[in-house]
Amino acid sequence: MFSRSRISVWGLRRPRQLGSYQARWSSSCTTQPQPSFPCVDAHAARESRLIAESASRSRGAASHPSDDSGPEPPYARPSPLSYNVYHHPRPLPLTYSASLPSFDIAYETWGTMSPTRDNVILLQTGLSASSHAASTPLNPSPGWWEKFIGPGRALDTSQFFVICSNVLGSCYGSTGPSSIDPTTGQRYATHFPILSIFDMVKAQFALLDHLGVDRLYASVGSSMGAMQSLAAGWLFPQRVGKIVSISGTGRSSPGSIAMRYAQRSVLMADPNWNNGFYYDGLPPHTGMKLARQIATITYRSGPEWDLRFGRKLHDTRMTDESRMTPKLCPEFMIETYLDHQGEQFCLKYDANSLLYVSKAMDLFDLTLPAIKRLGLSPAQKAPPKPTPSLEEAQTMALLKSHPPPANPPPHLPDLAEGLRPLASIPTLVLGVQSDILFPVEQQREVVDALRMAGNSRVSYFELGGVWGHDTFLLDVLNVGGAVRGFLS
C-alpha cells in the first residue's frame, strides 16, 4: 500500500510528464503537413458547385451540363419535349397502399402500328432507365438499347411497333417521389406510397388501353424489365402473346436484396437525404455516388475487369518513388472507373426514385404463397393451354439445354404454382453465366418452374462472356439474335 507522501509525489509528477508529452505531440504536428484526400475533398467541391449552380439558377442564368461521357454510355435525363406523356386521371389501386389519385407515364415509340394493332411490343426497362431506348426524330441521341431497335434488329421496327415507358416511381417523366402530389400541391418525397412491380405493370397497361392496344405481340424486358415481363403475363395472360425475360428472376433472392439494401443504406445515411425531403435543398449526392459504385460492382464481372483493367494504375506517369508510397484515394484503374461511374450518375437520377424502385425489385415474388399473402389474382383468366404440335414437342426436347438441378430449391414447386397463369404463353428466357446480380440459377429456376406449370413452349439460352449482368446492354450478337429469332 502506498504511503500518503508517495501518492502525493506521484500526483505532482504526472502532470509534468503529460505536459511534456503534449508539447512533443504538438511540436511534431506542426512540423508534419496535414494529409490530403482529394477523393474526399471532391464531395465538398461538388456540394459547393451545386450551391453555386442553385444560386445561378435563382438569378436566371443557364446551366451547362458536362459533356464528359466517360468510359460507358451514360443514362441521360431525357428532355421533356422528346417523349410523350399519358395522364391517367383516375386512381390506381396499389399492392401495398390504397391508391395513387392519378399518375403520368412517359413513353416513346418506334415503328408503325398495324391497322389491327396486333404488332405491338412493350419494352420494359431496368431500374434507372428512361423511356429513351433508342434514338427518335425528337431525340436523336442514342438510347440505352440503341443497337437492338430498328429495321432488321432484335426489335424489328419494319415489323413491330415498339413502346417503351418510364416506370411508375421513376423520375424521367412518369409519376414518382419527385412529382407533385395533387392533393397537397407539394412534392411527394417519402410520402409517396411503396410500389410493387405489379403496380408498374398495371400503369403500363392503362397506357396500352389509352393507345387502343388490346393485346401485345410480346412483352420484352431485361433485369427489372424481365420481372415486369413475367408480371405482365401473370396479370394479363390473355393480353400478352409472348414473353422475353433476359437476366431476370421470378423471385428476388436474398443475395440480390442484400446488394440493393447496401445501396439504399449508404444513400439514406447521407445527411442531405433528410428523410427524403431534400428537393428544396441539396440532393444526397455523396450517398448517390457511393450507391452507384456498389451497383456498378454488381452489374459487371471480375473476369471482365481483370481483362480490362488488371492491376494497372490510372496515372502511368507516376515515378518509381511515388509508386512506393500508396495513397488511400483511388490509384488503381478499377478504382477510378468506379469513382467515375458514381460521379456521372449521382446527379442524373432522383435519390428517392432509386429507393422506391429498388425496393419494388426486392418485393417481387411470384411464388404462390407470396401471391396469396398479397391477395393478388390475374386481371383475366388464363387462356386454355394449346396442345403442342409434334414439331413443337421435338423443338422443346432440344431446348432443354440445362441439366435438372441436383438439389432443387425448396421454393421451386411454389414458384411453379405461382407461374401457372403463364402456362400457355410462349416464353424466351436468357441467362448469363457471369451475372452475379441475377445469377444464372435464377433463370434456370424460371424455366423449370414454367415447364412444371405446364408451359411446353419455353425456350432457354445460356450465354457466356465476361460482361456480367450488363450483357443485355452489350451483347448485340447473342442477345439480339436470340430475341429476334424468338419474335420473328
How would you explain this protein's 3D organization?
This protein is an alpha/beta fold and 488 residues long. Helix content is 40%, strand content 11%. The chain contains 16 helices and twelve strands. It has helices spanning 4-31, 38-58, 197-211, 224-235, 254-268, 285-299, 302-308, 320-323, 333-345, 351-363, 368-374, 390-399, 412-418, 440-452, 471-474, 476-487; strands at residues 84-88, 92-93, 99-100, 103-110, 120-124, 149-150, 155-156, 161-165, 218-222, 243-246, 427-432, 458-463. The strands form three sheets. The chain has an eight-stranded mixed sheet with strand order 1-4-8-5-9-10-11-12, sandwiched between helices. Strand 2 (92-93) and strand 3 form a beta hairpin. Helix 5 packs antiparallel against helix 6 (285-299), helix 5 runs antiparallel to helix 10 (351-363) and helix 13 crosses helix 14 (440-452). Mean pLDDT is 87; it is low at 1-16 and 61-75.
Low-confidence stretches: 1-16, 61-75
DSSP strand content: 5-15%
Q: Strand pairing plus helix content: what structural class?
A: alpha/beta
* Separate helix tally: 16
Listing every helix as H and every strand as E from the N terminus to the C terminus, the arrangement reads HHEEEEEEEEHEHEHHHHHHHHHEHEHH
